[in-house]
Design brief:
The protein is of the alpha+beta class and about 725 residues long. It has three domains: about 180 residues, Aldehyde Oxidoreductase, domain 4 (2-Layer Sandwich), CATH 3.30.365; about 150 residues, Aldehyde Oxidoreductase, domain 4; about 350 residues, Aldehyde oxidase/xanthine dehydrogenase, molybdopterin binding domain (Aldehyde Oxidoreductase, domain 4). Helices cover about 30% and strands about 25% of the residues. The chain has 18 helices and 28 strands. The strands form seven sheets. It has a seven-stranded mixed β-sheet. A five-stranded mixed β-sheet has the order 13-21-20-19-14. A hairpin with a 3-residue loop joins β10 and β11. It is globular.
Length: about 725
């Protein structure tokens, strides 16, 4: 391997923090002409940072993004293969390490996998990696034959000299290609020429998941490894006061009891169960602080006051909404509320660390390898070139394992107290549930104005609640305003919401309780779509108009919003009689760059106390679709998440702490309750940035069902989950 310059710990940590824990950069292939190519970890020369080709024509595609079940790695491989022209049957993938990337001037770009950015934020430079490698391979073959490269073509890892018919394979010319300078001016294909992108290719990781070969963080085993589990102060802001290690040190398998920072204590043992049993028996005294007085009721009252507070951050505005409301012939008003939610991935937080005074290594399921690397560097106290992080596939992430690296820091801090011994930190389910980074709590007051002809003339939408950025990345606030709070409602202008309303005001009264917020799958579109789309139905009812017709009248200047809405309405049979006892609802939104809509069919049972969701039709326009089959699976999965939250899930606060400790009090829908999902993937192309698919549709499921429930019962539900209203999922 080429020698790499050392990187100071201080320089790296400061650089990482300045970018909010994730490191972003422009694409750049290093220009090089060398006699000693950069070697992969098994000694095979790389064509470039993204492509390694072995002598047997196996193609190793390196991807910095993380795989957590969503299929991103397969989609990214499709992007590379489209331009590389290699044999899909011989493609495999691997993760570069963030330490390697940092040492090579961050050549692999952004490691963060969240915000549905895995493909849409990296498609151009990974395609360029494939196109550049193909160009170099063809040039190497042409050089060997002594012919112009323009006379050669490549397909399925075979290079052909068209005039003579001579052929060679990628594996045979890979070493020579790796020695060539990186060409400039390589052009990407026109989308009309794509043959791999847009096709439902089989996932590359399925076999290893089925046969049990896939290793997740919780499965990892290293020689001589101990297992640790941890308890943090149950109240955020509190501290660890004392613990009595002597009470548990005599228990079988227990090796050590250690403090972790100022707020937590961990037990190390030879098995997880012995560590957990000892930790449960450990006498601990906490200093819970003033936050121990906080309750859900107190937080709700604080947010309620924000609905009419005189000052608020404006996220979207046009015209004069306040004047329109003052002069309205008729006004409609409603208040909605959305609770805290836990990510609750099936694999609890974990990380394995091996520390010595000269080296710190961490194995971790992470959504952001560079953020984990930064956390390990900071916790270890070592220079960055003495630290390495190895990414492992995630048993669920949903945002929890991205911007929040507490579990990595804890693992390193524990391992530092057992130098030379690998330590796997594995949180209990209770720790995972009660020390999450929760979907922010929010209330919303909406007021709509009509003129005498029942035309909507104004809308004021006041949000009151938590800011994620204020807690996590305060440096990303816009003069104090959290634009992320307005997801689906911002940037300014009616094109954000898809409706042209003459007088519009959407603002936010920021209220930040001590419960730490986080990027929960879909983030703020989940509540914002319920607020807006359910209230649109309320406005349609007040105007005496069909909900679809009412929306269409406001969407004349928004063809892509209307296209997805029309698609689901047509497929669901809107305007035609539904089966007896079946009722329908609609919702639409633009989220994460994609245009999405849903139409639901439900029936109610037990006097309205149970809802059976029969069918949901979903339309997604991500501008470009890499793997339609995977998009359909993502849509179905997002509905599981969205509907489970709607019916069952909330996190409540008592004595300053989260009450829900396990799945018995934080429930999820069952397979038998899953509705039939019909996914319409309708990429429209164009010059807008590509849209995402993992998160956008999660937001339209709940309002579509809620609007259908109103159609069935005449009852509006404005606070969630539905279980609090005695309503279950049939």
């Amino acid at each position: 391997m080429n020698s790499l310059p050392p990187i100071s710990r201080r320089a790296f940590v400061i650089g990482a923090a300045a970018l909010g824990g994730g490191l972003s950069l422009g694409f750049a292939l290093p220009a090089r002409a060398q006699t000693a190519p950069v070697l992969s970890k098994d000694g095979i020369p790389e064509i470039n940072a993204w492509v390694v080709i072995k002598p047997d024509d196996t193609v190793v595609i390196r991807m910095a993004r993380s795989e957590m079940g969503q299929g991103t790695i397969t989609g990214l491989a499709q992007l590379v293969v489209e331009e590389l022209h290699c044999d899909w049957a011989k493609v495999t993938t691997e993760y570069p390490t963030p330490g390697q990337s940092v040492a090579r001037k961050r050549i692999w770009g952004d490691f963060s996998t969240g915000g549905s950015r895995g493909i849409r934020a990296s498609h151009e430079y990974v395609r360029m990696g494939g196109a550049t490698a193909r160009t170099m391979l063809i040039q190497a073959a042409a050089n060997g034959w002594g012919v112009p490269a323009s006379e050669c073509v490549a397909a399925k890892s075979v290079i052909t000299h068209k005039p003579s018919g001579r052929t060679t394979s990628y594996g045979k010319v890979a070493l020579d290609a790796a020695k060539l300078p990186v060409p400039e001016g390589v052009k990407l294909k026109d989308p009309k020429e794509w043959t791999i992108i847009g096709k439902p290719m089989k996932r590359l990781d399925t076999a290893d998941k089925v046969n049990g070969k896939k290793i997740y963080g919780a499965d990892l085993k290293l020689p001589g490894m101990l297992t640790a589990t941890i308890k943090d102060c149950p109240v955020t802001g509190g501290k660890l006061k004392s613990f009595d290690a002597a009470k548990v040190m005599g228990l079988k398998g227990v090796k050590k009891v250690v403090p972790v920072g100022e707020t937590a204590v961990a037990v190390l043992a030879d098995t997880f169960w012995r560590a957990k049993t000892a930790l449960d028996a450990l006498p601990i005294v906490w200093d819970e602080g003033e936050n121990a007085k906080v309750s859900s009721a107190a937080i709700a009252d604080w947010l309620k006051a924000g609905l009419d507070a005189p000052e608020a951050f404006v996220g979207n505005a046009n015209g004069d909404a306040k004047a329109a409301l003052a002069g309205a012939a008729k006004k409609v008003e409603a208040v909605y509320a959305y609770p805290y939610l836990n990510h609750a991935p099936m694999e609890p937080m974990n990380a394995t660390a091996l520390y010595t005074p000269d080296k710190c290594e961490v194995w971790v399921p992470t959504q952001n390898g560079e953020a984990s690397f930064a956390a390990a560097v900071a916790a270890s106290g070592l220079p960055a070139d003495k630290v390495e992080v190895y990414k492992i596939d995630l048993g669920g992430g949903f945002g929890r394992r991205g911007g929040f690296q507490d579990y990595v820091s804890q693992a390193v801090l524990i391992a530092k107290q057992m130098p030379g011994t690998p330590v796997k930190l594995l949180w209990t389910r209770e720790e995972d549930m009660q020390h999450g980074r929760y979907h922010p709590i929010m209330q919303c007051k909406l007021v709509g104005a009509f003129d005498a002809q029942n035309n909507l003339t104004g809308l004021h939408m006041r949000l009151s609640g938590q800011s994620i950025l204020a807690s996590v990345f305060p440096q990303n606030l816009d003069k104090g305003k959290d634009n992320l709070t307005f997801q689906g409602l911002w940037p300014a202008g009616d094109f954000a919401i898809g409706y042209t309303i003459p007088n519009l005001l959407i603002d936010h009264s920021m209220r930040n309780p001590h419960i730490l917020p986080g990027f929960w799958r879909g983030v703020n579109i989940n509540q914002n779509c319920i607020f807006l789309e359910c209230f649109l139905d309320e406005l349609a009812q007040a105007a005496g108009q069909d909900p679809l017709d009412f929306r269409r009248k406001l969407m004349g200047n928004h063809p892509k919003h209307r296209a997805v809405l029309d698609a689901v309405a047509e497929r669901i049979g809107w305007g035609k009689p539904a089966a007896k006892g079946v009722h329908r609802g609609l919702a639409q939104m633009k989220a994460f760059g994609s245009y999405v809509a849903a139409a639901a069919e439900i029936s109610v049972e037990d006097g309205g106390k149970a809802i059976r969701v029969h069918r949901i039709v979903a339309a997604t326009d991500p501008l470009y679709a890499v793997n339609p089959a995977q998009i359909e699976r993502q849509v179905s999965g997002s509905f599981v998440y969205g509907l489970s939250a709607l019916f069952y899930q909330e996190c409540t606060v008592k004595d300053g702490r989260i009450e829900q400790a396990n799945f018995d009090s934080f429930n999820s829908m069952r397979i038998a309750q899953m509705p039939k999902v019909e996914s319409i993937v309708m990429p429209s192309g164009g010059t807008e940035p590509w849209g995402g698919v993992g998160e956008p549709t999660i937001c339209v499921a709940a309002p579509a069902v809620l609007n259908a429930y109103f159609a069935a019962t005449g009852r509006r539900i404005r606070t969630f989950p539905l279980k609090n209203h005695g309503i279950a999922m049939a």
